[in-house]
Specification:
Oligomer: single chain
Largest sheet: 2 strands, antiparallel
Strand order of the largest sheet: 1-2
Distance between the termini: 11 Å
Structural class: mainly alpha
Strand content: 5-15%
Radius of gyration: 27 Å
């Protein structure tokens, strides 16, 4: 095997490992995005329920350990609003990260294809010599 072919094989292995790492990062990102999307829906539902409960005399309660503690409805709404803001910011950050990772993924894919074609060319040139 020629030195050029060994070098290309080593490059291919390195790029393939980097490609797999990017795939893992994309999967982590997708999982986190899914979790935050679920939390967003959950918190939006809580906000709707707080709006409904505003007119009722029962009040709003917060579960702290095994105990229900009365909570000011405005404070509860404020807390949920802050949580919604945080979740939306995280979703935006994750979307940007996913775009960046997708671009890296495609770039690595092209690099791997290029290395594979170079390997084929070297092998084709070596075949007549054998």
């Amino acid at each position: 095997m020629s030195d050029q072919l060994r070098t290309l094989d080593a490059n291919l292995k390195t790029e393939a490992e980097a490609y797999q790492q990017i795939q893992k990062e994309l999967q982590k990102n997708a999982t986190a995005h899914k979790q935050f999307t679920a939390q967003l829906s959950e918190n939006e539902l809580v906000l709707k329920e707080l709006d409904k409960a505003e007119g009722e005399t029962g009040g709003v309660f917060k579960l702290v350990g095994p105990t229900l503690i009365r909570q000011d409805p405005h404070e509860a709404r404020s807390n949920v609003g802050k949580r919604l803001e945080f979740i939306r910011r995280e979703l935006d950050r994750l979307s940007g990260q996913a775009d960046s990772l997708t671009e890296k993924h495609a770039r690595k894919q092209r690099q791997i294809a290029n290395i594979q074609s170079n390997i084929q060319e070297v092998k084709a040139k070596m075949a007549p010599q054998q």
